[in-house]
Amino acid sequence: MKILEHTSTNLTLIDSTVGIWLGRLIGSIFLSLGCLGLFLLITSNSFPSLYSLIFLTVCLTVGIIFVFFLPKNTLWFDKKAGKLIFKSQKLLWTKVVEYPLSDITSVIVDKRRASDNTTYAVTLKIASRPQKLCLSSMVFMRLKKAEERANLICTFLNTPL
Length: 161
Description:
Blueprint: E1 2-6, E2 10-14, H1 17-43, H2 50-68, E3 72-78, E4 83-89, E5 94-100, E6 104-114, E7 117-126, E8 133-134, H3 143-157
Antiparallel strand pairs: 1-2, 2-3, 3-4, 4-5, 6-7, 7-8
């Protein structure tokens, strides 16, 4: 997450635009492979093998998820208004949710594992929300960067980590 604004009354964080568009580019490659394979499958006269069907399904699924459902998150912490505005912008739609700053009970650095890599995500525990709110759609943060972002938010909100 990148810091756009940090003053005594406002803190604005945004996902990396390069990371989001890189994910969408990779997704479009998978989607193109899946569509090309589907076209070849439809135009051929032979019955496809199980492996080609699995390959097509994986390519189309990964492509659709990365292109259409990869969100770019923006967070505005506003002390004057006393609220957190969370904007999740996907390719075709945008969702904006507001939470009172007083509902934020804790800032947590969550450990995520993907095979041999360990990455970290900064999440907020909000009293009016049953599950934690993950601040970044791309959880490729190393521990030091995640702790820096969590400390920045805690300092801004005057809450302990």
